[in-house]
Design goal:
Largest sheet: none
Number of strands: 0
Oligomer: single chain
Structural class: mainly alpha
Radius of gyration: 36 Å
Order of helices and strands: HHHHH
Number of helices: 5
Shape: elongated
Length: about 160
């Protein structure tokens, strides 16, 4: 009997070690399951928000508002998203085009016009200088005058 006691103690020790490993794995399973459930909830929120978002709303805005969608079922989330996005009408107007970085540099005309309408002409260098001076933008006026002087020099014949 005394000879079997060390073997029984060793078997109990191995059983306890196995239990600890099993418990550790069970905790990992619980953590992964919780993460999966959170991801599934976020996916349902995003889908409900995308379905309810007004046409033309950018994806970043939809994603930022999707976290506010609540509900325990898909139908509840869809109803909540519809109520949330009701306050938004249509798509936001695009931001105005920025002026060119280099004074006098032309940018393409962005708005399409029917063939019967004339294409607006760009203001001449003199008109741009006058507008910059009238606006009090002396730095732009000086840059435009420098450009005009360079254009005049290019046109002069070299002798």
């Amino acid at each position: 009997m005394k000879q079997l006691q060390p073997l029984a103690d060793k078997a109990k020790e191995l059983e306890d070690a196995e239990k600890t490993e099993t418990q550790r794995l069970a905790e990992q399973v619980q953590a992964v399951t919780a993460e999966r459930d959170t991801s599934a909830q976020e996916l349902l929120q995003l889908r409900a928000a995308l379905a309810a978002a007004p046409a033309g709303m950018d994806a970043a805005t939809v994603a930022s508002l999707a976290v506010r969608v609540r509900g325990s079922t898909v139908e509840e989330m869809q109803a909540d998203a519809a109520a949330l996005f009701q306050q938004f009408g249509g798509p936001q107007p695009p931001a105005p085009a920025t002026p060119p970085a280099v004074p006098g540099q032309q940018t393409p005309v962005e708005h399409l016009r029917p063939g019967a309408l004339p294409t607006p002409t760009a203001p001449s260098l003199d008109e741009q200088i006058a507008a910059a001076t009238a606006a009090g933008d002396m730095a732009t006026a000086m840059a435009l005058k420098s450009q005009k002087l360079a254009d005049v020099r290019k046109k002069q014949p070299t002798t």
